[in-house]
Amino acid sequence: MKKLRVLYHDNCFDGVSSAAVFSCFYKRHVDPDAAIEYEGLTHKAGQLIGEELFGDSENVIVDFKYSASQRLTWWFDHHESAFLSPQDEAHFRQDKSGLKFHDPGYKSCTKFIAYITEKVFSVQMPDLEELIYWADIIDGAQFPDARTAVELKAPALKLMLVIEASHQREFIHKIIQDLQHRTLAQVVDDPAVKSRFDVLYAHHTESIEIMRKEAKCIGGVIEFDVSAYDLDGYNKFIPYYLFPESVYCVGVSRSSVRSKVSVGTNPWSKRPRQHNLAKLCEKYGGGGHSVVAAISFKPDAIDSARAAAREISGKLQADLKASQ
Ligand SMILES: [Mn+2]
Engineered SS bond to 100: which of 33, 67, 75, 319, CB 3.0-4.6 Å? Predict the structure, then answer.
């Protein structure tokens, strides 16, 4: 009997789905009776994946950075920044095992694994199609509209809420096992999953109401200040759900470790974007991506955060007006 340890991206729907899909593949292609164990990995700046995380038999990393350890048997990732160093990348390029795969063109690691296992190993998993489809929607933020992303009606999105907020490993590992032979609706109906979802969904609903109270949309730019509330983990699509006609969003929030300005572009806006938000935030010491960026301030520097948010919002409004 083969032994396999699956190291997966923790608290992430795509990471958990990748672990489930690879496990199914392994049982069908390598050993139907394989003893499989799971271990979640989280991002820590510049940190290597420690040797102690690997099992003493076969190991796979899914949806997470490469490791040059000789204990690593399989690897699948789709992140742009998949290597911690040029040495790691060179190690991967020289690999002759034929069991390590990287393609940043994929929106989800789950879909990438399904593609490779079918093309390279001729293993098809039609029973997992629903999971693969949703992992690609979620990890690629390809929601058809803000309503889908916020109302969380689909079983996959309910499960996403639970996975992103749960830190008990046994609970997550049970979900990974269940996903291999049950539908998403069945997994969500499990009493342990359902009770957690109900608590998280109540918080989610509360955060929508707070946002409804605190946000306004001026000249195509949503402004909100939720620094008076404990709202660090709110769903980022709520503002666009409340103001579908908006183009940008500039928000102020506060947690115990920082005051924060979040700047985003409405993914469903039909107006062409003109601003690189990362560049805009860099002027204040922040950064990010062209469509979503942020600036962190010290927890007590809330006034500086508010001033920066006002300036950025004013600039975005002026530019929208000028382009009309
Ligand atoms: Mn991923």
Answer: 75
pLDDT in tens, 247-264: 999 999 998 889 999 999
**CA 53 to centroid of chain Cα atoms:** 22
Q: Classify 166 as helix, strand or coil.
A: coil
Instruction: Give the count of beta carbons closer than 10 Å to the beta carbon of residue 93.
Output: 9
- Taking the model in full, what pTM does it have? 0.88
> What is the distance in A from the centroid of ligand 1 to the CA of 40?
13
Question: Ligand 1 mean position to 79 CA, how many Å?
Answer: 7
DSSP letters for 7-27: EEETT-HHHHHHHHHHHHHHH
Question: Minimal CA–CA distance to 297: which of 228, 247, 239, 227?
Answer: 227
Kindly list the structural domains of the chain, giving each domain's residue range(s) and its CATH number in brackets, ordered by start.
3-189 (3.90.1640), 215-322 (3.10.310.30)
Structure tokens at 259: 């005051």
| Residue scoring higher pLDDT (50 or 24) | 24
Q: How far is the CA of 182 from the centre of ligand 1 (A)?
A: 22
Q: How far away, in angstroms, is 308 Cα from ligand 1 center?
A: 32
